[in-house]
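Protein data:
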Amino acid sequence: MRTILTNTDDITVVAEGARGADALRLVAEQRPDVLVLDVNLPDVNGIEVTRQLRAQGAQTAILILTVHHDRQTVFGLLESGATGYVLKDDALETLVSAVRAVARGGSTSSPIRRTRRTRGSTRTSPCRICAERGSSAINRSTA
């Protein structure tokens, strides 16, 4: 995942972590525009991390990576405050465009699974991203 994101001219990875606690800490420290977060983490799952970040008032767009596409999981992700999700099977082809979409204030989901827009922002500025599993925090320059 890091390689895909760092090979994109308009995205810069600023941090990485491997656990939910890392994601919580990195978002507080880095204040990224986007967090790419695996739903399956060794300590706290991605849904709980998302809930905690939203409860703390984090404005970071949260893009969840998951192998699950059942309704219960998808609704749980969105209800927790995730901006969108990408199925891991689709990630190689769609991760960069998904990151760009949520950085602009939109939402995204893997193909054939459209979701409602959950963020009202219409930002077009470059983004910073933390990605979890590793949490790759990515910055797009803020020129």
